[in-house]
Automatic annotation (TrEMBL):
InterPro entries hit by this protein: Acyl_CoA_acyltransferase, GNAT_dom
Superkingdom in the source lineage: Eukaryota
SUPFAM superfamilies associated with the record: Acyl-CoA N-acyltransferases (Nat)
GO cellular component terms given for this protein: chloroplast
Listed Pfam families: Acetyltransf_1
Domain N-acetyltransferase: start-end pairs: 62-267
Protein name, UniProt field: N-acetyltransferase domain-containing protein
MF annotations from Gene Ontology: N-acetyltransferase activity
Species of origin: Escallonia herrerae
Amino acid sequence: MRTVPLGISAVNGLSINFKKLPTSPSRVPRFADEHSFSHLSRSGACKASQVVELFPSVSPEVVVREARLEDSWEVAETHCSSFFPEYSFPLDFVLRIDRLMGMLLGFSVPSGCRRTCLVAVIGTSDEDTFFLGSEDLKIGGFDGKFSLNKGYVAGILTVDTVADFLPRKGPLRQRRTGIAYISNVAVRDRFRRKGIGKRLVAKAETQARNWGCRAIALHCDLNNPGATRLYKSQGFRSIKVPDGAAWPQPRTSPDIQFNFMMKLLNTQTNF
Ligand SMILES: CC(=O)SCCNC(=O)CCNC(=O)[C@H](O)C(C)(C)COP(=O)(O)OP(=O)(O)OC[C@H]1O[C@@H](n2cnc3c(N)ncnc32)[C@H](O)[C@@H]1OP(=O)(O)O
């Protein structure tokens, strides 16, 4: 089964940042995994694994929150190891650096739009975390606050209101508003099937509601039945895109076919 990084990555043609990820997401040869790269990750991984063994389903130790600066490397790792698991050294390392730089330097959004990266973190609690930095500071798609009690990033998701993958409105081709878009959903291999994906999607919905959105949408590779099942279980429904419709699609390999899925967020309003 092929997995495809969608959304920001897929949207803008992927060159050096998260909104420009490689256009061919097919798996390529792998030669090192995330453990190779940082001592910090290695120690974090042990701790996280122990927690998960103690709590086989999602435990209270899994916190889903907005990504902060200190998570950025692990976010890049999670993305690369999930969507490009077969990349081998040095490509996998370069890819991680590319994602990291993109996240820190890129991630700009059009005026009036929002975008945030969520992380599912194991082995921490926000309640006893001491933060440095300012509430208002944003660096790339990251919250500028910094904490030493960071936990271990097991899953990621991006949600935005950029509407790059929805048809534009009217003769002026304005961006559609009020519909959030989910992309780049990934859970590290060894933490899958523990409800983390569901938690990330649920948090994205909460974020979308807080932004005033009435619906939330995503594109999923038709050949990704696991992810499709996840979204269906969360109330997303496949939307038939009329043949020939000028409906923008994530820019990945041309042979990938997408299922456009959408969920209304507790509102009767039509879109
Ligand atoms: C919009 C996008 O970004 S689409 C891209 C999706 N991302 C990827 O394909 C990257 C690689 N895959 C992954 O990272 C993960 O497998 C994800 C994100 C798809 C799922 O994350 P998980 O944390 O494993 O999902 P979670 O445990 O919450 O699963 C919820 C339900 O989804 C379904 N599901 C999830 N994964 C699978 C699978 N591999 N096979 C079948 N069903 C699955 C099941 O119904 C599952 O419930 P169950 O475990 O009680 O049967």
